[in-house]
Specification:
Elements: H1 2-32, H2 34-79, H3 83-101, E1 105-106, E2 121-125, E3 132-136, E4 154-156, H4 159-163, E5 173-175
Amino acid sequence: MLTINVAVLLAVIVILRLRRRTEARRFCAAESGPARRAFDQVGLRRQQRAEEEARRAREQAVQEEKERKALETATAWWGRLSRKQMEELFAAVAERAWREEQLRVEIPEKPGMAVHFAYGVPVNSRGRHHALYGIVRPCPELVSLSPQLAYHRVLVRNAQEMREFDETLAGRITHYDLPEHEQLTLD
């Protein structure tokens, strides 16, 4: 009885080995045929997508770092002024627009820096001729990132600020002769 079971067991082992060899041959045939090429193409496309996503992620990280540095630079530029000096500048802009061009301009309650204008504050005229009047204090270091500034009036506090722009906006800058320091008023 024991001999029959060993014989059956040996037969099963032989059959299993034959099946494995047959499957291995089929797999090898598939490896070299169209199925293998399709498998390779799928893998290649996956790898290309992964590389493209990694490239986009790197580009986005670089862009975000540039934007962060630009914001830091602009914040430092605007940080040189006190709240009173900012109010004085916007009041001077409104007064000159009225005196020289009979235009009323909209002075924002909370001036917000505009990225596309080198972090300057856009000021619009009011009324019938509602249009961009000028850009108040764009950051000189960021002018190269905003080429459209060449087509707009730039409004700065004084000649010192105007010199910080070098020749980048020659002829397009208006300064208001405001002092670098705050004026003390005696009431």
